[in-house]
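dumping this here before i forget
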Amino acid sequence: MTLLTASFAEASGGRLHLIGGGWTRLLRPNVPTPVALAIKLRGTTRLNEAVPWIIELCDERGKAFIPASQPNGEQKPQVRIEGSMESKPDIPGDVDPVDAAIAVNMAISLPEGRYEWHFSVGGDLCATWTFRVGPRSIDPKDEKQD
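structure:
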């Protein structure tokens, strides 16, 4: 299982195509920025049964990030993407491992801070990716955490 960020991602034929993959920092807070998530799954799952997956943006405490309400009082929803996958063998009785690629592209605007993407399959947290929003620190100790 691999999860990482990119500027753009595309899934095709079980492969991932990335532009600007693996970043850990967005330098400009509160500016809409293109963000892509690339996920590669390889393993076993229940055959002939849809298995749900969820991608969720969380704050530094691991809780779902809820954006602040707008000046007009409108509340933005949390960033959460849901889908499902199903493994069907080519040959009845064959048990091939799942080999899937998922790419999600969006534009997000976040305040300065530390965030995590959480990816869950069937209710189990499978992968996380931590990133920061804001200018680079001049403290070398802070940079080692990226």
